[in-house]
């Protein structure tokens, strides 16, 4: 198996790996439950998301610094008003200082609007990059990943987890820079006014920082549990409220049970949301109370110093200092809250990074082979396959050749590996031994475009989008004309039915095509494949779920589709494969018999037994 393992880059998702995975674990191995060694690496990885937008972020930084410096000037203007302009009756100076305070507010507001616009745009672009990266990564995962992952879980990662990071990505970085700049500028200004009062004001800040860090860790753990619960609930909704889920629930009388199950999951989410919002709330409230009480402490300290004959502070200086202190209060509390929010968001980033770090086992070579024309010869050379290293082999030692334009039918009992064998040709899975070739080239060496053009699949599980008939058909060939659509539908024996519908080819097929019967959906799928015109055709039990009359109509469409193509048919009903050039009987992953229909009947082996069984099960018409 080939592994050209890429790591993710927001701008180039094909960058090869150079070392260890950046997988972020949601669990901590430290005795105290912290994950301090992981956090710097995670933060560096988060910062890399913003790297393509450095220039715009630099502008935001300049605007933030300018706004902070302008806002700090206001208390000094106030000090001059109280200590000089008013006592000395200097009206001109008073007007100038008052105008300066107004202009300071205007400039600060304008800078704030501009920085919000730029930072929000950057943040939304980063979220777009994340969503696109996760979706692109999942599109490149093998079929095995989706067989073991609930659809709702995948949807929750893209919608809930990335959506939950919106506030952090769009505003936290700007808030962090803005508040940090404000705190530094304010502390410097306070020191310039009076270092003794500044020391009193900052005495408890280290304690506050420690408390906020503890609260952040607590909320991060709860956030991880909450997102898992949201994913579980999303999976339940996706499965039970689909058309198939509703049909199953109603016909099995389980609607009330499903409602109770959803109610319980929702109740658990309510508990986690409450815990998340209340975690550390009392401790943060204490910080808020203490900081709000600091002006009173400053006034008390200044009054006590004056009473005891210490150094006096002018009224202007005292008012300006308290104004600065109040200005320090907001960004400091915001900084502490931002620290908590960042730690909480790390849980969401971890879940996204887990998907971005998923190993991709179906990859395209750096220098893939591209076939301009696919003739259609398919070979299986000593092919073996297993789903995991410790599992039993699903296929073992398969050697088969299907010449271009020829037909091969694969039959056998359930679980013999028939579908798995067919999925190796379009690389829905990769072999674990041997090789599969198309026109003599290992399919693992071909570029994905050649495989997509060269191999078409029609399976028993027909998937139609909730869109019009024309849009479903054009999924195979976006630039197809109406005439091409009609020709493909005629070949698939479905044109007359479509034309009889009120909206014709503009008819919406409904969720998963439930407005059409099973046979009609199969013929639509065949028409879609005819439109793509692949030289190699995989038919995976395409008629096994249909009644005899519908099967006959669909089989006519399949015959039209199979003409002059290399055809690999996975068959449940043996009546559909009697004319195949070669028939192979699989048993426990090995080719037990092979030959034509007549040859295998003459041998009287497994195939003959399957034919006799099929004849007994065939309904009388």
Automatic annotation (TrEMBL):
The chain crosses the membrane at residues 53-73, 93-118, 167-189, 195-212, 284-302. PROSITE patterns: ABC_TM1F, ABC_TRANSPORTER_1, ABC_TRANSPORTER_2. Residues 58-344 form the ABC transmembrane type-1 domain. Pfam families: ABC_membrane (PF00664), ABC_tran (PF00005). Keywords: ATP-binding, Cell inner membrane, Cell membrane, Membrane, Nucleotide-binding, Transmembrane, Transmembrane helix, Transport. The keyword Repeat does not apply. GO terms for cellular component: plasma membrane. It comes from Streptomyces aurantiacus JA 4570. It is found in: Cell inner membrane. GO terms for molecular function: ABC-type oligopeptide transporter activity; ATP binding; ATP hydrolysis activity. One of its GO terms (biological process) is oligopeptide export from mitochondrion. Residues 378-613 form the ABC transporter domain. It comes from the Bacteria. Belongs to the ABC transporter superfamily. Siderophore-Fe(3+) uptake transporter (SIUT) (TC 3.A.1.21) family. CDD domains: ABC_6TM_exporter_like. Residues 1-39 are annotated as: Disordered. InterPro entries: AAA+_ATPase (IPR003593), ABC1_TM_dom (IPR011527), ABC1_TM_sf (IPR036640), ABC_transporter-like_ATP-bd (IPR003439), ABC_transporter-like_CS (IPR017871), P-loop_NTPase (IPR027417), Type_1_exporter (IPR039421). Residues 20-39 have a biased composition (Basic and acidic residues). Its main location: membrane. It is a multi-pass membrane protein. This is Putative multidrug export ATP-binding/permease protein YgaD.
């Amino acid at each position: 198996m080939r592994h050209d393992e890429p790591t993710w880059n927001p701008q180039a998702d094909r960058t090869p790996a150079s070392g260890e995975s950046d997988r972020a674990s949601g669990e901590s191995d430290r005795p105290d439950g912290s994950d301090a060694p992981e956090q710097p690496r995670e933060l560096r990885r988060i910062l890399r998301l913003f790297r393509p937008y450095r220039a715009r972020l630099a502008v935001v930084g300049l605007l933030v610094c300018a706004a902070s410096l302008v806002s700090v000037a206001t208390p000094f203007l106030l000090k001059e008003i109280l200590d000089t302009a008013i006592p000395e009756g200097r009206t001109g100076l008073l007007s100038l200082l008052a105008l300066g305070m107004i202009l300071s507010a205007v400039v600060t507001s304008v800078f704030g609007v501009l920085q919000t616009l730029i930072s929000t745009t950057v943040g939304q672009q980063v979220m777009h990059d994340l969503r696109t990266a996760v979706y692109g990564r999942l599109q490149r995962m093998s079929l095995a990943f989706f067989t073991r992952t609930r659809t709702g879980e995948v949807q929750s990662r893209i919608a809930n987890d990335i959506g939950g990071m919106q506030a952090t990505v769009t505003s936290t970085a700007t808030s962090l820079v803005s508040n940090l700049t404000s705190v530094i500028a304010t502390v410097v200004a306070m020191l310039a006014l009076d270092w003794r009062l500044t020391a009193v004001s900052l005495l408890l800040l280290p304690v506050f920082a420690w408390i906020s860090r503890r609260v952040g860790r607590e909320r991060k753990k709860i956030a991880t549990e909450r997102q898992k619960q949201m994913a579980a609930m999303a999976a339940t909704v996706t499965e039970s409220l689909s058309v198939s889920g509703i049909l199953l629930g109603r016909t099995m009388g389980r609607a009330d049970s499903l409602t109770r199950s959803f109610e319980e999951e929702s109740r658990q989410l309510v508990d986690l949301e409450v815990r998340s919002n209340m975690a550390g709330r009392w401790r943060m409230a204490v910080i808020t109370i203490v900081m709000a009480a600091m002006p009173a402490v400053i006034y008390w300290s200044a009054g006590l110093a004056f009473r005891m004959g210490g150094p006096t502070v002018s009224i202007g200086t005292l008012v300006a200092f308290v104004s600065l202190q109040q200005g320090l209060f907001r960004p400091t509390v915001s900084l502490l809250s931002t620290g908590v929010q960042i730690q909480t968001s790390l849980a969401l980033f971890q879940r996204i990074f887990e998907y971005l770090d998923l190993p991709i086992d179906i990859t395209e070579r750096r220098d893939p082979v591209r076939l301009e024309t696919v003739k259609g010869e398919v070979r299986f050379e000593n092919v073996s396959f297993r789903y995991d290293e410790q599992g039993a082999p699903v296929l073992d030692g398969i050697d088969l050749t299907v010449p271009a334009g020829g037909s091969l039918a694969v039959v056998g009992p359930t679980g013999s590996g028939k579908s798995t064998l067919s999925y190796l040709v379009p690389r829905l899975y990769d072999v674990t031994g041997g090789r599969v070739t198309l026109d003599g080239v290992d399919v693992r060496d071909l570029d994905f475009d050649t495989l997509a053009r060269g191999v078409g699949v029609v399976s028993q599980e027909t998937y139609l989008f909730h869109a019009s008939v024309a849009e479903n058909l054009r999924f195979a060939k976006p630039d197809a004309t109406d005439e091409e659509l009609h020709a493909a539908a005629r070949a698939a024996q479905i044109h007359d039915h479509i034309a009889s519908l009120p909206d014709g080819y503009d008819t919406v097929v409904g969720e998963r095509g439930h407005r059409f019967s099973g046979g009609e959906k199969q013929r639509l799928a065949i028409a879609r494949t005819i439109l793509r015109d692949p030289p190699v055709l995989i038919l995976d039990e395409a008629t096994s779920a249909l009644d005899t009359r519908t099967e006959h109509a669909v089989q006519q469409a399949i015959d039209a589709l199979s003409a002059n193509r290399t055809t690999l048919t996975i068959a449940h009903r043996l009546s559909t494969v009697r004319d195949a050039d070669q028939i192979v009987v699989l048993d426990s992953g090995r080719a037990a018999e092979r030959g034509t229909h007549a040859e295998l009947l003459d041998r009287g082996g497994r195939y003959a037994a399957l034919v006799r069984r099929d004849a007994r099960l065939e309904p009388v018409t």
